[in-house]
């Protein structure tokens, strides 16, 4: 408990914005921190990587599970030195589950779920449950207003 409180205090000073009641577990890694906006009630579990070279936004009450990776940059196919920066967004109440990957520029909408080990390479619509590589629609849940 003390560790999550300490990480929360640091996040309030480093992140672009850090909401209330944010829980960040151990071994979470950020590229910079200052390009990261985190809403109220967000939980970031252990061993998560958030690449915030460009902007990353995580909405209220979202949950990022263990070993998930969220990216905001990509490399051109022809030239590895050609780096593209893209805003990546995780919507309110969205869940990014164990070992899943959100690629740069992808928006995971409100109430969506990216299943374990799924790779979201395209937008995930509100309430969608996606899984696989690349992630595809496998179910739907209700969306809060």
N-end to C-end Cα span: 32 Å
Strand percentage, roughly?
A: 25-35%
Helix and strand content put the structural class at: mainly beta
User: Helix-strand pattern, N to C?
Assistant: HEEEEEEEEEEEEEEEEEEE
Strand segment tally: 19
- Helix proportion range: under 10%
Description of the structure:
With 145 residues, the protein is mostly beta strands. The protein contains one helix and 19 strands. The strands form four sheets. A seven-stranded mixed beta sheet has the order 2-5-8-13-16-18-19. The chain has a five-stranded parallel beta sheet with strand order 1-4-7-12-15, with helices on one face. Strands 3-6-9-14-17 form a five-stranded parallel beta sheet, with no helix packed on it. A hairpin with a 4-residue loop joins strand 18 and strand 19 (136-140). The radius of gyration is 14 Å and the shape is globular.
List keywords for this structure.
145 residues; 33% strand; 5-stranded parallel β-sheet; globular; mainly beta; 7-stranded mixed β-sheet; 1 helix; 19 strands
């Amino acid at each position: 408990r003390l560790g999550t409180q300490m990480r929360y205090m640091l996040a309030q000073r480093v992140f672009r914005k850090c909401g209330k009641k944010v829980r960040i577990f151990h071994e979470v890694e950020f590229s910079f921190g200052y390009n990261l906006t985190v809403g109220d009630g967000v939980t970031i579990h252990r061993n998560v990587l958030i690449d915030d070279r460009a902007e990353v936004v995580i909405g209220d009450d979202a949950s990022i599970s263990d070993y998930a990776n969220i990216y905001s940059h990509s490399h051109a196919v022809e030239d590895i030195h050609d780096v593209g920066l893209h805003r990546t967004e995780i919507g309110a109440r969205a869940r990014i589950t164990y070992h899943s990957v959100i690629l740069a520029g992808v928006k995971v909408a409100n109430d969506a779920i990216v299943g374990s080990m799924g790779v979201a390479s395209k937008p995930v619509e509100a309430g969608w449950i996606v899984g696989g590589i690349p992630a595809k629609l496998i179910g739907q849940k209700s969306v809060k207003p």
